[in-house]
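Here is one chain, start to finish.
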Amino acid sequence: QVQLVESGGGLVQPGGSLKLSCRSSGIMSSIYNMGWYRQAPGKDREWVAVIGTGNLIKYTDSVKGRFTISRDNRKNTVSLQMNSLQREDTAIYYCCAYLPKTDNYIWGQGTQVTVSS
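Its structure:
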């Protein structure tokens, strides 16, 4: 019943933009820390951006100034606006919800982002 579903991935040229969205169901999303992770071919999954329950935000260095994470608890969504995309951003992007009280992680199925000319 608990699900995170990502959407918005696709093919974009270098320098372009995409907006990813993650919709949760079966949880009270307002009490979860939310984040975006990505995994490129042959590489480990890495964190991209996180937004806490109090809207405190952190980004990994490689996306600072280009990506913006936001959440809308009314809609049970978390978004990732990605600008100035680079080939190095190509990866499967995953949404994650984390509940500190129970140290519980919930993962979405991922959405593919491909940056190529």
